[in-house]
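To: structure desk
From: M.T.
Subject: fold request, one chain
Message: Could you run this one when you get a chance? Sequence is below, nothing fancy, just the single chain.
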Amino acid sequence: MSSELFHVIEPRAFNRELLDELCDITDRARAMAKERDGAIALQQLLADKRAMLYFTQASTRTFLSFNNACHILGMGTSEIRDPAISSEIKGESFDDSIRTFSSYVDVIVMRTPERGLAGRAAALMDRIPRRVPIINAGSGPDQHPTQALLDIYTLEHSFIGRGGIDGKTIGMMGDLRRGRTVRSLCQLMKNYHDVKLVFISPPSFAMRNDIKKQLAQHKIDFTETQTLDDVLSDLDALYVTRMQSEWDVDGESLKINLGEFSIGPAEMQLLREDAVVMHPLPRGPEIDPAVDDDSRAVYWRQERNGMWMRVALLIKIFGVEAQLAS
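Reply: Done. Structure tokens follow.
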């Protein structure tokens, strides 16, 4: 039986059934869009719906992918990308702003520099008569559930013919302490069998204990190292992240030798032929542009997957998946 979906706040709310269904919806929507008649049919699916894109933190890929996902489905969009142009600058409360948005639209997509605001907005929606879905498009250094969904889709397609994500060893490298993408992806690993995680980071940017406790609770094997070369040949996927310098205290990112946590042609020679390299983008010096030409570098494909997974997410939230071509 199909799982229901309304608010999207935390990745740990997703089970395997729902993840598999979202991947299937993504595939079906993409296939439809390749033909003119299919693309037109997609534009009719949610033509009666409107979305608010409330992005008060800088964003390129997440904003554009959600915006275009809405357009693919025929949804009208409104946006606020700077709180200085909203009534919050006049002293309006966050709760009143969200309730105002809900009067005009059918879904609110939020990206904020503060953790917990999407959850607060969802709790508010659950208390008022006009209840609209809240989608967390990134909250502080804490959660990024829709990025985790597109990462799952990318991994599943990268391992198609190899049993999917089950049984794979996935390395995560870089600023793991403040990287909300890797934190969110870790929370979805409970849905897969015999997955092993390898955390590769400087000690000061290691994965936080809350995630490690969750992994231990779900009996997900993980190890930690500071040396990429020691583990690279064991990996099925390497998920690279940048230093999250926007959260720096006293320039702490500048104290790290990024050369030890980067990948270039030399490192690619150690990577298995059937492995992949991922990155949520934007990237810094942690991936040499020369890697782009390697077929195992899937981060540009991963980026495009984001738009289509967000199409699938909106289709599922509004319950129109049965109208897709099979």
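Reply (cont.): The chain has a mean pLDDT of 92. Let me know if you need anything else for the meeting.
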